[in-house]
Amino acid sequence: MINLQGVIPAVRNMKDFDRILNSKQKYIILLETRLSLLRHAVKYAQKMDKQVLVHADLIQGLKSDEFGIEFLLRDIKVDGLISTRSNVISHAKKNKVTSIQRLFALDSQALEHNIKIINTLKPDYIEILPGVVPEILEEVHEKTGIPIIAGGLIRTKQDVENALNKGAKAITTSFVHLWEL
């Protein structure tokens, strides 16, 4: 399992991808990438000594079924998978690839439902969106014992500090100005 901590860049476009390759950051999260670009991007990032986590649900042209996930793991050789889908997390765990279950904290019922699923799946990390609700970060960690990543609506240095102070082990953000914190 990858040891995620601090701010982790969530890349939405190739311009930001090129920028992060020349940084000190060790990890990259690829969001909203086209399937046709994925192999080259992952291979190039790994050549630059980066580890690549891919949000499987957001890869354009990929179906997040058993065969799509097998393709990401065996052919593309991603270092980790992020998903809201249980089947993706299960496949990642079976293949000993870092698994991050993305959880949207929409309301109390959705939160409790997701916590039940997470306690069954036991992903390596839980990414909670929005990450600007520190009390939810603490609550989910207390109920699962799984390391928390705060993501979504993290816009300022204060947002990063608040999440880390409330127990988040890492922060994901696409705001470039926060990547070097």
Summarize this, please?
This protein has helices spanning 14-21, 35-47, 66-76, 86-94, 108-121, 134-144, 157-165, and strands at 6-11, 27-30, 51-55, 80-83, 98-104, 125-129, 148-151, 168-173. With 181 residues, the chain is α/β, with parallel strands linked by helices. An eight-stranded parallel barrel has the order 1-2-3-4-5-6-7-8, surrounded by six helices.
Write the layout of secondary structure elements.
Layout: E1 6-11, H1 14-21, E2 27-30, H2 35-47, E3 51-55, H3 66-76, E4 80-83, H4 86-94, E5 98-104, H5 108-121, E6 125-129, H6 134-144, E7 148-151, H7 157-165, E8 168-173
Parallel strand pairs: 1-2, 1-8, 2-3, 3-4, 4-5, 5-6, 6-7, 7-8
Helix pairs in contact: 3-4
Annotation keywords:
single chain; alpha/beta; eight-stranded parallel beta barrel; 7 helices; transcription regulation; GlpP; transcription
Order of helices and strands: EHEHEHEHEHEHEHE
Kindly provide the radius of gyration, computed on alpha-carbon positions and rounded to a whole number of angstroms.
15 Å
Q: What is the CATH first-level class name?
A: Alpha Beta
Strand residue content: 15-25%
CATH superfamily: Aldolase class I
Number of helices, where a helix is a run of at least 4 consecutive DSSP H or I residues: 7
Oligomer: single chain
Overall mean pLDDT: 96
**Helical residue percent?**
40-55%
Structural class: alpha/beta
pLDDT < 50 runs, ≥5 residues: none
Any guess at the CATH architecture? Alpha-Beta Barrel
Number of domains: 1
Strand count, sense and barrel status of the largest sheet are: 8 strands, parallel, barrel
Which strand order does the major sheet show? 1-2-3-4-5-6-7-8
- Straight-line N-to-C gap: 23 Å
Number of beta strands: 8
- Indicate the overall shape: globular
CATH topology: TIM Barrel
Keywords: Glycerol metabolism, RNA-binding, Transcription, Transcription regulation
InterPro entries: Aldolase_TIM, GlpP
Organism: Heyndrickxia vini
Protein name: Glycerol uptake operon antiterminator regulatory protein
